[in-house]
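We modelled the chain as a single entity of 139 amino acids. Its sequence is:
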Amino acid sequence: MNMIQILLVEDNPADIYLAKEALKESDFPVELHVVEDGVKATNYLLKRAPYESATTPHVILLDLKLPIKDGLEVLEEIRQYPALKRVPVVVLTSSEHEKDISRTFLLDATCYITKPIEPEQLLSTIKLVNGLPQLSQTL
């Protein structure tokens, strides 16, 4: 199985740590890349400096509440590019506002999960959006 490239766009160190720990428990090979704000996220995804050699991720884990440029702005911008339109975007956020939920789906997010998220839920979501076999305990 090839290494699954994941981009985590998150500014909260505790949430970054939890995602890293959850991915250590995965039964599939993962390479995690982390950026802490929306500008870095779009630069990474569009391979702008200093990310010219960045790999296009198989999955984007996107927080909505980000510094400089929020997650909705990131989602809106990247969905304009055909190569990025196909990349699954899993929105991981503390927001339960109907407006945020509706907007993410209008911008073609793959799914919307409110924090806190259990490690098993994160792993099964990544597998689901990548078309990998699901973990038996989540069925």
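As a brief sanity check on the tokenised model: Residues 13-24 form the longest helix (12 residues). The chain has one domain: 4-132.
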